[in-house]
Amino acid sequence: TSFGFKEVCEEDKSELVGKVFTNVASNYDLMNDIMSGGLHRLWKDRLVSQLSPFPGMKHLDVAGGTGDVAFRILERIKSVQRRALQDYLDENIGETQIFVCDINPNMLNVGKKRAQERGHAEDKSLVWVEGDAEALSFEDNSMDAYTIAFGIRNVTHIEKTLAEAYRVLRRGGRFLCLELSRVDIPIFKDLYDYYSFSVIPAVGELVAGDRESYQYLVESARRFPSQERFAAMIADAGFQKVEYENLVGGVVAIHSALKV
Ligand code: SAM
Predict the structure, then answer these.
(1) Nearest to residue 21, comparing CAs of 37, 3, 9, 47?
(2) Residue 204 belongs to some domain of the structure
(3) Domain assignment of residue 5, yes or no
(4) Domains held by the chain: number
(5) Distance 149 CA to ligand 1 centre (A)
(6) What's the whole-model pTM score?
(7) Does the pLDDT at position 81 exceed 80?
(8) Complex-level ipTM
(9) Range of the domain at 71
(10) Are the C-beta atoms of residues 222 and 15 closer than 8 Å to each other?
């Protein structure tokens, strides 16, 4: 391909990822629905229900892109936090803060626009931050929880990203990662391979006029470590209670861990 996905070396990866997400930003939500048959919504719901967000929390969603995970967290907190209680909680527990950090300003801009559409424009709880998962601008031990959804396979150094997640979390803070993973079920694996390598790039071309970016997305998923290997990397970063849950036979997995 003209981006040279297969040959890409480390130094070029961030530039390549920048190009890909600049290209896909405007079609991102539509393509997510098409490629996953709408399932990405359920997977993100599952991630947020595993997180159990609470009023007053300081949350960091890295590679937060168009705000999908952050909106779910915010809406869940608001649904448990009755209006009458809101001022009391803000005063006594502190304001909820959900930081959406993404390296790509185009993705963040789509997110900010969606925040307006969803009625969160005036909400001080959402904070949009342009930044790199590998070098976060947040202080040590400052976050109650950290999520990264469909983001970690795009970073250049997974270890640095995990070390940064560990650094910014407070003791007792939770790490949750939703990512495309490995399917090992015979036949289903073959179907999934066909779908990934043939159907997705073709749909990318048809809907978004961009085969290459979607080809990259598929290939980056295949290069990502297996569930077990990734769990070992999370433990190596210092986390405890590392667990994972496969969804749809491992098409995606949710890894979770605790900083103790
Ligand atoms: N979390 C969103 C979701 O689940 O819909 C967006 C996922 S999107 C597939 C991947 C995002 O990772 C893009 O918005 C991209 O800009 C961002 N990204 C890639 N490399 C990054 C890095 N080093 N630091 C922060 N964000 C990064």
Answers:
(1) 3
(2) yes
(3) no
(4) 1
(5) 8
(6) 0.93
(7) no
(8) 0.99
(9) 10-258
(10) no
Distance from the alpha carbon of residue 109 to the mean position of ligand 1, in angstroms: 13
- Report the percent of the chain where pLDDT is more than 90: 76
Q: Is 129 exposed, middle or buried (0-12, 13-18, 19+ CB in 10 A)?
A: middle
> Looking at residue 106, which CATH number applies to its domain?
3.40.50.150
Q: Tell me how far the alpha carbon of residue 165 lies from the centroid of ligand 1, in angstroms.
A: 15
State pLDDT tens for residues 138-170. 999 999 999 999 999 999 999 999 999 999 999
Contact indicator for 65, 102 with CB cutoff of 8 Å: yes
Structural domain includes residue 1: no
What is the rounded distance in angstroms from the CA atom of residue 119 to the CA atom of residue 132?
Answer: 27
Nearest-CA residue for ligand 1 atom 4 is: 149
Has residue 234 been placed in a domain?
yes
Binding site as annotated, residues: 66, 102, 132-133
Which residues lie closer than 8 Å to 130 by C-beta, 6 or more apart?
101, 102, 103, 105, 108
